[in-house]
Write a structure and sequence with these properties.
The protein is an alpha/beta fold. The chain has 3 domains: 58 residues; 191 residues, no CATH class; 178 residues, TPP-binding domain (Rossmann fold, 3-Layer(aba) Sandwich). It is built from 18 helices and 6 strands. It has a 6-stranded parallel beta sheet. Helix 15 links the parallel strand 2 and strand 3. Helix 4 runs antiparallel to helix 5 and helix 5 packs parallel to helix 7. It is globular, with a radius of gyration of 25 Å. The chain starts with a helix and ends with a helix.
């Protein structure tokens, strides 16, 4: 029997090593749109191997409920993958982060129940990882639900702050750590364990509520990291190497992505979490002064003329592109312009949209050639030599106030220098501010032309004019 166990242990170890390798390779391939599809497949294959290996390695009395869960979960996942719109994808990512944290919390809770029943006698280090799984998992779960609510506009997207919130949150966090430490060294105390769970759930709410909707891309990537850390802690609880490795990878990659997103806004993580960015709509004197300035509108016919006779055109996608699902029309218009020997590129800001990589995913869905997608650092020097820049639903990432207005909440944030183009065409439903609630100077510039209306309908009208031979 021991020989069989030793042989099985070797196979399990090798299987987890293979799964971890697939995770790492898949994660690497996800860094490029060219290889992202294959990277996703490799990651899914690694997860399948890890799941099968875990089922073979654990003492499972009955597979019935496990199979039921797999079938129900797979059916729900497949349905969501086919039905959730791209505009709702950030909300879905937030929910998935929350489910990951909640799962870690439940698994840790099951282990603590076994400890309370006297079935197991965990060592202090395992008790520590149980408490960390509970704290991180619960914060991730409730925080992700609030992020989902903000993105879905069930909860206000503004930073909601109550008097003394930072103080109360700090005291609650310190109390959680103290209670968790006490539970590590004390006999099982279910009442206090329940208190810890409730406190962690409340902490998740207090953690996300003061963060404005414009910072949701950073929050989503940070909560993604938390879900990975919670999973890794749960791996230590269960003694599961595959879970430890996969959780650590998600945790590390999420933190790296969070740092990239913060750098893209020229802000520290502490400022995002505690700065109450976008807590109020930035109308103010500057906003009122801009409201008195004239706005130059343009129709589809004139927009088609500007684009058709341009030599260089740069498309700048934003959340409005996702709302109208106009990515296919953008690609069609770009192909028509290329047929007229127009040089076409796409400028992608790191925090455009509602989640990291939102615009990249949209454009990839429309089969936009990857070489035409240019990152901010490379594309910015080209705007001053560009005939027409077409802004489709982007707001804060093209606001010139970030360069010179020290009173603006986005001052210092790197932006796309679209205002330096010879002509700027902005496709937008109205003059309302973006998700950050900040008036945009670009809309009032002399070289800006506003094409009002739904982006998809506006692009279809422009496409019709271009096809008609201008």
């Amino acid at each position: 029997m021991s020989g069989a166990g030793g042989w099985l242990g070797t196979v399990v170890g090798l299987a987890y090593l293979l799964a971890a390798s697939l995770f790492i390779i898949g994660l690497k391939r996800l860094s490029s749109p060219r290889t992202a599809r294959r990277g996703n497949i490799l990651g899914a294959l690694g997860m399948l191997i890890a799941i099968v290996t875990t089922l073979l390695n654990q003492e499972i009395v009955s597979f019935t409920w496990i199979l039921v869960g797999i079938v129900i979960g797979s059916a729900i996942g497949a349905m969501l993958a086919r039905t959730v719109k791209m505009t709702a994808m950030p909300q879905m990512v937030a929910l998935l982060n929350g489910f990951g944290g909640g799962a870690s919390q439940l698994v840790a809770g099951d282990e603590y129940l076994r400890f309370a029943a006297g079935t197991i006698h965990p060592t202090p280090d395992i008790q520590t990882t149980i408490m960390l799984s509970v704290i991180i998992g619960a914060i991730t779960f409730s925080g992700s639900l609030i992020a989902f609510g903000k993105l879905q506009e069930i909860v206000s997207g503004k930073a909601l702050i109550m008097p003394g919130q930072k103080l109360w949150a700090g005291l609650l966090f310190a109390g959680m750590l103290g209670l968790g430490g006490w539970l590590v060294v004390s006999p099982a105390a279910m009442n206090m364990y329940v208190v810890l769970n409730v406190a962690a759930l409340v902490m998740g709410v207090l953690f996300v509520m003061p963060i404005g909707g414009a910072d949701m891309p950073v929050v989503i990537s940070l909560l993604n990291s938390y879900s990975g850390l919670a999973a890794s802690m749960t791996g230590f609880v269960l003694g599961n190497n595959g879970l430890i490795i996969s959780g650590a990878l998600v945790g590390a990659s999420g933190l790296i992505l969070t740092k990239i997103m913060c750098d893209a806004m020229n802000r520290s993580l502490a400022n995002v979490l505690f700065g109450a960015f976008a807590s109020q709509v930035a109308a103010g004197p500057a906003g009122a002064a801009m409201a008195d300035r004239p706005v130059r509108s343009v129709g589809p016919e004139d927009a088609a003329v500007l684009l058709g006779y341009a030599r260089t055109v740069i498309f700048v996608p934003g959340y409005g592109l996702a709302v109208s699902q106009a990515q296919h029309q953008v690609r069609e218009l770009a192909e028509l312009l290329e047929a007229r020997d127009v040089d076409v590129k796409y400028a992608v800001h790191p925090v455009a949209g509602r989640m990291p990589g939102h615009m990249n995913v949209l454009l990839a869905e429309a089969n936009v050639p990857y070489p035409q997608l240019v990152e901010m650092e490379q594309i910015n020097p080209e705007f001053e030599h560009t005939d027409v820049a077409v802004v489709i639903g982007a707001n804060d990432v093209v606001n010139p106030a970030a360069r010179h207005d020290r009173q603006s909440p986005i001052y210092g944030m790197p932006i796309l220098d679209v205002d330096k183009a010879q002509t700027v065409i902005v496709l937008k439903r109205s003059m309302n501010p973006g998700f950050a609630g900040i008036s945009n100077e670009l809309f009032y510039n002399e070289n800006t032309r506003m094409l009002f209306g739904d982006a998809k309908k506006s692009l279809l009208a422009v496409i019709h004019e271009v096809k008609s031979g201008l």
